[in-house]
Every structure is written in structure tokens, then in C-alpha cells.
Amino acid sequence: MLAITWKVLCEACQRFCRLTLYMQSICVSARLTPYVTVAAPAASGIINDSIYAQDCRFADPTVSFTGLDLWKRNLQLLVPFLVEPRIQLLSLKNLGYSKTGAQQLKAEWTLQTCLSLPWRPVISILGSTVYTLSREGNKVVEHVEGWNVTPVQALLAVFTPGHARS
Q1: In whole angstroms, what is the distance from residue 128 CA to residue 42 CA?
Q2: Could you report the per-residue pLDDT of 61-114, keeping only the tens digit for each?
Q3: Edge-to-edge strands of the sheet including 140-147?
Q4: Of 12, 90, 103, 152, which cross-links 108 as Cys (Cβ 3.0–4.6 Å)?
Q5: Is 96 exposed, middle or buried (0-12, 13-18, 19+ CB in 10 A)?
Q6: What is the separation, in whole angstroms, between the first and last Cα of the chain?
Q7: Residue 48's pLDDT is what?
Q8: Has residue 138 got a pLDDT over 70?
Q9: Are the C-beta atoms of residues 133 and 95 closer than 8 Å to each other?
Q10: Closest C-alpha among 161, 91, 159, 87 to residue 124
Q11: Would you give the DSSP letter of residue 81?
């Protein structure tokens, strides 16, 4: 009888731990959703420091680096070239756990903008970002983007004439 009770108690504890981790991921999702939807960092340059670890790894199809401060500097150089950027969040999903046991969330989004260059190239990307969360504190420790275009296609889009200036 004691063994069955111990087993039931262990199973209850495991369910509680899974529920706690799930609730933590929902809290991060709740903090992440308005951030991705309203003030997407790639388009606005506004970064919500509270959700990122200082040593976060950032990657997209063209570059990969570590450090929140470096990402901020990169965005400060990029954002002035974006003309009326529009980002739409299509979905935000809980992917579960990585092989290392870290919680992962995936945002799918679209980005549409023109670049502030004389030929006004149009940038239109369907993309996704996988956010890997830390185990302690639920901060983003990896921010990895994927796009529906290759790096070469993205570069060619920069040199393709878009809308004429009005």
C-alpha cells in the first residue's frame, strides 16, 4: 500500500513540475506576444531587455553572434533604413523542450518594408523565430530566425528597384 501511495505521490509531483514549467512558458509567451506583435525589434529597434539574457545568441540566415548589446548596436544601424516597416505575428507556439531540456517557443511572422535607398527596394519576408528559454528565470538565451528566402535572394532584393519616390 505504501509503495502505491509513493508512486502516486511521485506521479503527482511530476505532473505538478510539468504544469509549473508549462505555466512559466505561458508567462513568457504572454510577455513575448505583445513584444513580437507591437514592437518587433528588427523593425523598431526597441528591445525589451527584460526577456533577453545578456549573453543571448542571435542568428538569422546571414549572421550569428552572441550578446544583447551587439544586437542593439546592429539594430541601431539597420532601423534607420527601414521605411514604414510592418510586422505581423502569424502565430506563437510552444515547441516543448529541446534536446538539452530548454523550453522553446516559435513565432511565425511576416515583414514588409521598403529600404531608404534611392531605388526603394521592397523587402517582403515570411519568417520565423525560435526562442530558447533559460531554465532559471525564463529569459531568452537563443533567438534564431529563419526566412522563406535564401541569403542570396535577400541580398538581391536589396538591389532590386522597388517603388518610385513620390
Answers
A1: 12
A2: 999 999 999 988 888 888 888 898 888 999 999 999 888 888 999 999 999 999
A3: 63-66, 52-60, 140-147, 122-133, 103-115, 82-97
A4: 90
A5: exposed
A6: 82
A7: 77
A8: yes
A9: no
A10: 87
A11: G
What does each C-alpha distance from 33 to 125, 150, 160 come to in angstroms? 19, 26, 33
Quote the cell numbers at residue 147.
526566412
Residue linked to cell 511521485? 10
Amino acid making up residue 152: V
Distance CA 50, CA 67 (A): 14
With a CB cutoff of 8 Å and minimum separation 6, the contacts of 134 are: 53, 102, 140, 141
In whole angstroms, how large is the CA radius of gyration of the chain? 20
- Alpha-carbon distance of 29 to 72, in angstroms, equals 22
